Every structure is written in structure tokens, then in C-alpha cells.
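Support request from a user on the community tier.

User writes: "When I paste my C-alpha cells into the form, the page sometimes reloads and wipes my input. The last time it worked, I copied everything first. Here is what I submitted, just in case something in the input itself triggers the reload:"
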């Protein structure tokens, strides 16, 4: 039996699922495979459990690989841990039962600030009504808004805007007038030199003196 269990531990791969492989004293024995790194390489390690209300294990589920008798005793040792586990749960249950009356008293106790909470709620409602009343426009403001009416023609259409009046500047732009440019005082007009021919009996034409 020990050799068979050691062979299961070496060659089985359940891919993370619990698989039943036998039983002891009516309790099922299951094996589960877990992938891990062994000496830097990925490998599979198997652990064994005795199933009941819980999953009981001894040596964290690893069986002895060097001793077949110790491998078989793994499940018996797991079952022998049950009384100690039961004792631990009984102690924990007793402590919880001792706390039950205290917890019941806390639950049944009336909250002392309930009246204060009601008063705060009432004040909050009054403040909300006051703010709403202050934000609401008065009757005088509503009447003033109602009097502001846009003048219309006869069928609710707004009146036409008056045509723009013609100013002297606009009239000036509509009449074409001749413009005369005068020379600037700072500029000097070019000097004109004119000569007229003079007739003399002896020499014919001669130049007129320059002006």
C-alpha cells in the first residue's frame, strides 16, 4: 500500500482537482496536484487529504517517500488530529456564546440621541423653507416684469425700426464736386525762361535777353 501511495505521489496529475483514491475507516482519501517550481524547473507535487466535514491532513498533505509504513500512516495521523480540532472549535464557540448577552443588550438598547436627531431634522426643514421663500420673487417684481411689453403692430409683429437719418456728412458723400489742388507753399514752382526773336536789319535774328 505504501508503494502504491508513493507511486501516486510521483506520477499523478489531477490538474488542480480533488480526485478520490481510496478510503480509511470510512473516510474518503483524495489527492490534488499543484504545479510549482522545483529546483528552477516546473514540476507537480501531490498532497493527500482525508475528507469529512473538513479536509484533514497530516504533514501538510505530503506523504513520506522514503518509508512505506510512514506513507500509510499519514491518513491515520490526519484522523488523530480530529479530537484536537474539535476541542479548538468548542473553545471558540464557548467564547462566542459568552459574548451573545452583551451583543443582545447593545442591539436592544435605545439610542440616546434619537430625540436630538428629530430636532435637527425639524430645524433643517424650517431652514429649507426659509431659503425657498427668500429666493422666490416678490409680487411687485412679478408685476413690474409683466408691464414690460414690446410694442407691436396689429398681429403681434414688432414695429419696424426707423430708417437712419441723412446727416450732412452723408449728403456730402453723395454729391460729386470738383477738387482743386493748390501747390504747397514750401515747394517752389520751376523757373520758366522764355525768349522772343528780335529782328534787326543788320544782323537778322538775335536772342532776346533772358528774364
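"...and here is what came back when it finally went through:"
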Amino acid at each position: 500500500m505504501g508503494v502504491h501511495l508513493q507511486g501516486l505521489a510521483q506520477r499523478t496529475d489531477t490538474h488542480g482537482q480533488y480526485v478520490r483514491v481510496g478510503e480509511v475507516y470510512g473516510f474518503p482519501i483524495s489527492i490534488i496536484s499543484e504545479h510549482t517550481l522545483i529546483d528552477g524547473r516546473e514540476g507537480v507535487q501531490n498532497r493527500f487529504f482525508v475528507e469529512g466535514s473538513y479536509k484533514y491532513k497530516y504533514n501538510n498533505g505530503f506523504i513520506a517517500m522514503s518509508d512505506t509504513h510512514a506513507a500509510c500512516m499519514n491518513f491515520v495521523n490526519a484522523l488523530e488530529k480530529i479530537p484536537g480540532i474539535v476541542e479548538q472549535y468548542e473553545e471558540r464557540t464557548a467564547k462566542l456564546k459568552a459574548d451573545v448577552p452583551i451583543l443582545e443588550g447593545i442591539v436592544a438598547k435605545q439610542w440616546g440621541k434619537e430625540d436630538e436627531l428629530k430636532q435637527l431634522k425639524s430645524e433643517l426643514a424650517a431652514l429649507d423653507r426659509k431659503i425657498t421663500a427668500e429666493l422666490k420673487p416678490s409680487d411687485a417684481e412679478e408685476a413690474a416684469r409683466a408691464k414690460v411689453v414690446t410694442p407691436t403692430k396689429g398681429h403681434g409683429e414688432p414695429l419696424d425700426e426707423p430708417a437712419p437719418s441723412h446727416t450732412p456728412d452723408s449728403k456730402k458723400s453723395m454729391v460729386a464736386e470738383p477738387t482743386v489742388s493748390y501747390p504747397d507753399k514750401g515747394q517752389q514752382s520751376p523757373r520758366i525762361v522764355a525768349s522772343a526773336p528780335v529782328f534787326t536789319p543788320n544782323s537778322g535774328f538775335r536772342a532776346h535777353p533772358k528774364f
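Agent notes: The reload is a front-end session timeout and is unrelated to the input. The radius of gyration is 60 Å. DSSP finds six helices and six strands in the chain. Escalated to web team.
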